[in-house]
Write a structure and sequence with these properties.
The complex is a heterodimer of chains A (61) and B (306). Chain A is an all-alpha fold and 61 residues long. Chain A contains 1 helix and no strands. The radius of gyration of chain A is 18 Å and the shape is extended. The N and C termini of chain A lie far apart (41 Å). Chain B has 306 residues and is α/β, with parallel strands linked by helices. Chain B is 38% helix and 22% strand. Chain B has 11 helices and 14 strands. In chain B, the strands form 5 sheets. A 5-stranded parallel sheet of chain B has the order 2-3-1-4-9, with helices on both faces. In chain B, strands 10-14-13 form a 3-stranded antiparallel sheet, with no helix packed on it. The radius of gyration of chain B is 21 Å and the shape is globular. The chains are: A mainly alpha (61), B alpha/beta (306). At the A-B interface, helix 1 of A face helix 1, helix 4, helix 6, helix 9 and strand 9 of B.
């Protein structure tokens, strides 16, 4: 039986002032879309993955 | 290390692929248990000669022998039949092979009793100093049903599209059968007609039990698990609220195909598509990129970056 009512909060993607449309099926346009919507977050995560993330311990198998 | 949780066909593979596209395959790796098991099964003779196999053998411990676990891997109909201890060993050895990257896992937990393992898998996989989090996907059954019913697959590269919801650039019309055929967009091969898979016309019917189990795991983690951050991804938005949260081009449209006899050309009309969500609310389904946007927003918060 499916239990109903699982509702996650809605996270908006809207950016104030951004009215341009993007073709989300096209890789180039998609890249611009991601930069327009979450460019700041992408830059911060990329930096984290590059410099700040602690690397995995050597596999001790 | 992120754990994808959500129903089968919820789009875990698609979101993983978008994350790799955005951040690069040098920084992000996805390990999907189902794909891993299929890959090992299909290439067993080669796999047996690898260090990964030796590591798997070395790491495995459980209630049945290693050889018996391997037999189950070859005879499996679903990865859920594999003992959890073997699943953990498989994932750990593959992660060790992947190397120094952020890991996104799909396939753990696959059952309620595997939730506890996922809470400590970070330590088990030697990522103990790194953050871990769940990435939970909420998607209505009705969306999965339509995705399966109208799905077409490239027989050459397994690329998957949907004749109603996710079409390709090139579409052919067969006048004799009066049907439309998508041609695969993969530039690595020529024009190949995408085909329906046997049984897809039944939609979610054959996998309903599995979907309900996936939903139960999702609910359990959502409501009862503490101490691990949760990224909550919604595939859908109530139609009445869509404009408040999203741009129109971010909503999945329906494509209506028709044949223009005069021009001898396939015409594509795009129109809004709504479904009833699991609570009966008229909703739009989001395209994958906006869901990835919500993932990235939440991920930056989980990592305390902004």
């Amino acid at each position: 039986m499916i239990m109903r009512g699982l509702e996650f909060p809605i996270t908006s993607t809207k950016v104030p002032g951004l009215t341009k449309s993007f073709d989300l099926a096209d890789p180039e346009s998609r890249k611009k879309y991601f930069n327009a919507k979450v460019g700041r977050e992408i830059a911060a995560i990329s930096k984290y993955l590059e410099k700040d993330a602690k690397l995995p311990q050597s596999p001790n198998i | 290390m992120g754990f994808f949780l959500g129903k089968k066909n919820a789009g875990k593979g698609t979101y993983s692929s978008l994350l790799r596209e955005i951040f690069g395959t040098d920084k992000i790796a996805t390990v999907a248990l189902g794909d891993l098991v299929r890959e090992i099964h299909a290439n067993w003779d080669d796999y047996k000669t690898t260090d990964e196999y030796q590591n798997l053998k070395k790491f495995y411990r459980g209630y049945i022998s290693f050889d018996e676990a391997v037999e189950r891997l070859h005879g499996r109909s679903q990865s859920t039949l594999l003992p959890t201890e073997f699943v953990l060993a498989l994932l750990k050895t593959r992660i060790a092979k992947v190397g120094k990257k952020a890991i996104f896992l799909d396939g753990l937990p696959r059952d309620i009793d595997q939730i506890s393992y996922s809470l400590f898998f970070r330590d088990l996989a030697n990522y103990r100093d790194d953050p871990d989090f769940f990435m939970m996907i909420d998607i209505p059954m009705s969306v999965i049903d339509e995705r399966i019913k109208y799905r077409v697959v490239c027989p050459n590269c397994n690329n998957s599209r949907n004749i109603k919801l996710l079409i390709t650039k090139r579409i052919e019309y067969d006048e004799s059968s009066k049907s439309f055929h998508l041609l695969c967009d993969n530039p690595n091969h020529g024009d190949i007609m995408m085909v329906r898979k046997e049984g897809d016309d039944l939609g979610i019917k054959p996998i309903r039990e599995r979907l309900e189990k996936d939903e139960e795991i999702l609910r359990k983690v959502f409501e009862e698990i503490h101490g691990v951050p949760k990224i909550m991804l919604r595939n859908h938005v109530p139609a009445a609220e869509a404009d408040k949260y999203f741009d129109r081009y971010e909503l999945t449209p329906e494509y209506v195909l028709s044949w223009d006899e005069k021009k001898k050309k396939v015409e594509v009309e795009e129109k809004p598509w709504t479904v009833k969500d699991d609570n009966g609310v008229e909703s739009y389904s989001l395209l994958a990129p906006p869901v990835a946007v919500t993932l990235i927003k939440q991920l930056s918060k989980v990592l305390n970056l902004l």
